[in-house]
Amino acid sequence: MTWRLGVLSSPRRSRGGGEVRRRRGGASAAGGGELSPAANARLLHLIRGYSDVIAGQFYGHRHADTFRLVYRDGRPVSWAFLAPAVTPRGAGSTSNPGLRLYKFDSNTGKVLDYTQYYLDVANARSETHWAIEYNLTQYYGLREVSATSLDLLAERIRSSHDSLLFTK
């Protein structure tokens, strides 16, 4: 934990961006349930405490395409993107392999957008090709990728009676 705090504190001192990579598994903060409740509480405490440094969290191989938000005092302060897996779930599965390409600002590290691709293995005859499923900002009409904009999107989804929001 001391190492992590040092890595997260360094960008605050230098006014730059920070990067911490989690190498194994997912995290309960992302809805995966791999962490104990105590470890998840520590992770959320860390994310909340360093939300000015942590751009967001990226999780893969969840067999789901979703996002999570982290709140502090009722205000959204961070986000986690959960990308689909490159492998389908298995025999009889309806999930297609997914691949996500993120667009970053190379100077700030800020996530600007992402494009979600899929491979339609169920309808493949001989040769398969990755196809664009959607682009985050275009599809959902977002001006930016931030905890605030994703919170507004989540509210739109929760209260939506607009079936066009869910056409994919």
From TrEMBL:
The keyword Glycoprotein applies. The keyword Chloroplast does not apply. It holds the Pfam family ASMase_C. GO terms for cellular component: extracellular space. Keywords: Glycoprotein, Hydrolase. Residues 1-33 are annotated as: Disordered. Residues 1-11 have a biased composition (Low complexity). Residues 76-166 form the Sphingomyelin phosphodiesterase C-terminal domain. GO terms for molecular function: phosphoric diester hydrolase activity. PANTHER family: METALLOPHOS DOMAIN-CONTAINING PROTEIN, SPHINGOMYELIN PHOSPHODIESTERASE. This is Acid sphingomyelinase-like phosphodiesterase 3a.
